[in-house]
Amino acid sequence: MQEIPYTNDVHDDGGQVTVRQLTPDDVTDTYLSWFSDPVVTEYLEARNLSRKDVVDYMVGGRESGLHVMHGIFAKDSDRHIGNVKIGPISWKHGTAGLVTFIGDRAYWGKGIGREAVRIGVQLAFENYGLRKLSDGVIEGNVGSLKAYCAAGFVVEATMRGQYLLNGQSRDRIVISCFNPKFFPQEC
User: Fold this and answer.
1) Longest dimension (CA), the chain
2) Which of 183, 112, 182 has the alpha carbon at shortest distance from 151?
3) Packing angle of the helix pair 142-150, 112-122 (nearest 10 deg)
4) Helix (H, G, I), strand (E, B) or coil at 172
């Protein structure tokens, strides 16, 4: 594994948000409040996190090379409104997960998820040289599925009954995006 160096580069595709690597200073009370909101966390495993939990996860992932956390910042206010996580990363295989999360509900339904996914894909492919990104969306999380598909992801598989959500069995929709440098036929 390799450490992922910290950079303060700001990534901007001309839309509503910018994306940059997070630092411990970004873990504010507002950030932590997202993980206490049952509407925001409906499709997340993480809930009620402490500052120490988040900082340890963020710094540990970057130092170990397992994942890197980026913040999504609204251009209209420079507010931190969500995250993009690239990881877990397999450097051997050139693959990783890509998780986007809009914690500030005032920014839901504005196309920001799609924009953040696009920037995350660009970072993963161009900055980290990854070949393929994959992740899973819980059945019923329509907003996430739309954002990923609009940003170039395709559905690769459905894992039946993979999740339990409020006591109900839900499928895991496996989505992937392929780096055209390695998969030219996919583009």
Assistant:
1) 45
2) 112
3) 50
4) strand
pLDDT tens for 33-58 read 998 888 777 777 776 789 999 999 99
> For the sheet containing 11-12, what is the strand order?
11-12, 17-21, 68-74, 80-90, 95-102, 132-138, 168-178, 154-165
Q: 3-class SS at 171?
A: strand
DSSP codes joined into one string, 66-118: S-EEEEEEETTT--EEEEEEEEEEETTTTEEEEEEEE--GGGTTSSHHHHHHH
Residue type at 57?
A: Y
Segment 94-115 mean pLDDT:
94
Token readout for 102 is: 């809009």
List domains and CATH numbers for the chain.
11-186 (3.40.630.30)
1's tokens: 């594994």
- Number of neighbouring beta carbons within 10 Å of residue 33: 12
